[in-house]
Amino acid sequence: MSDKKVSRPCHHCKSRSASAPADTSKIHYEKFWLYRHCSSVQQRDQQAQKAGQLFSGLLAMNVVFLGSAFISSMIFNKVAITLADVWILLSILKVLCLFWIIYYLLGTSRQPHAVLYRDSHAGAIWIRGSVLLFGSCSILLNAFQIGYSTILVHCKSRMEIVFPSIGILFICTQAYFLWHHSKDCIQVQHNFTRCGLMLTIATNLLLWLLAVTNDTLHVEIESQLREVERRFAGKAPSSHPHWGNETTLCTCPNTTICKVFQKGYILLYPFNTEYCLVCCSMLYVMWKNVGRRISHHHIPHAKPKFKLQGVVFGPLLGTSAVIIGACVFMMYQIQATTLAPSRQVFVIYYSYYIVLLPLMSVGAVIGTIIHALEKKELDTLKNPTRSLDVVLLMGAALGQIGMSYFSIVALVATDPRDLLNSLILSYSVLLIFQNITQNVFVIDGLHRRRTPPGKEEDTKEEQNREAYSQRRVSVLELGQEIRKASLSYIHTYSHLSWKRRVLREISFFLVLCNIILWVMPTFGAHPVFENGMERSFYGYSTWFVIVNFGLPLGVFYRMHSVGGLLEVYVTA
């Protein structure tokens, strides 16, 4: 496999066709040894792209299968393959990814004509911001793990300090890489870049898989808590397979700093899985954009701007949902951090969801009906970012849907007539319906062409901006300016068609609802694990895997839905 940079004189260069003119002296066609017999230069280019994607995909598949085999062997045969062995493999993969990222930053991206095009749809500010947020929390998580292992260094292996240290370096480098280069459509070293991106994707997937299945430290902390309870009760040490005498030999000393490390690790654990998922999605878009040449009609002349105009009821209802949700969240968190949450708090928590989810479902259904009534053309242009958005929305929704079905089976099999059980059962059913209706609404909206604003409105807005910038508003003029702004807002609201107005109201309401539904499971304790219903039915380890598989996907779904709904709001 080899890449040759060839500059050929050509009058029409484009990523998929030959209709848009470009500077042909800067185009580097891909070459691949399997397709040298092709007569057409562009046909050879397209075939080489497919072959490069195939080979890099096979590389990622083999790395994922190898890592999955290691992790599975660790779960089912802890004697032959230990957690330290898995950490060594992942550390090697992280170091290889680090070398490639550094080479890309210092070598590939700085070559002449390396980045001729940038994908305006890729690397939106909200998803890059989430990389920084989740990356920062993952760094703290690794720091807590290092601190915890350092305190217990007499009974911990050195690998428990080395692995998170490499993890911090990997997270920092990858976050910088994605922040600055997520929009790149690289035009040189195509195959090497594809293989590097796929190796990084495979590494993130394996880190996510390990985080989902590895409950070692959680079990250790649970063991210590239960041991303390038994000592107070005057009972003998436990012989539970998870909480046996082995774990009590490595007990956290009764110091504040050790308790902080324990609590911080458990609180920040979901952020690490979330970080891996977000990075995989951004790296996949970069992989699809390798060698892509964007024609002029693909490049938006003006970026759609978010304007809080034409909406009244959506922000009011959404803000009410956020305020009530924040109160419920704080009430639950106060009890969860001080003592075991009471039954009443669980009832309030799930009742809030049972009221909110039907409202969101109804809004999504109404929005979908309005989309069907509108005769707006579908945007059929090829867009890797939008295609990935659709796949991620559908795939991430499987996390919450899967957890809901597991809960339904457990609750129906035990005691569905109990008040709390019936609330959790209703919550699970409504959550499935809400995910499906919202996905239909968002995906339909993403494929609608943006309605350009009228020229008169644009001219008036520009004149208003110039007027505001040229003169200072004094205290005496403040009331007059507020009145003018209010009249302008009412004018804009009244001139929107009723369909666009309703779509904007629904979109904004759903944005705020998804934000609070993202905040509650992300920054706090998790009732789905702490209510004890499903955990007692499936067992600790099984329910741990189910929750750590579904919860990060659910958080990712809410975060990704906010981006999709904002896009629907702008295009309405």
From TrEMBL:
Its main location: membrane. It comes from the Eukaryota. InterPro entries: Otopetrin. One of its GO terms (molecular function) is proton channel activity. It is a multi-pass membrane protein. It is found in: Cell membrane. GO terms for cellular component: plasma membrane. The chain crosses the membrane at residues 54-75, 87-106, 126-149, 161-179, 191-211, 266-287, 308-334, 346-370, 390-412, 424-443, 506-525, 537-557. Keywords: Cell membrane, Hydrogen ion transport, Ion channel, Ion transport, Membrane, Transmembrane, Transmembrane helix, Transport. Belongs to the otopetrin family. This is OTOP3 protein. The lineage of its organism: Eukaryota, Metazoa, Chordata, Craniata, Vertebrata. The gene is Otop3.
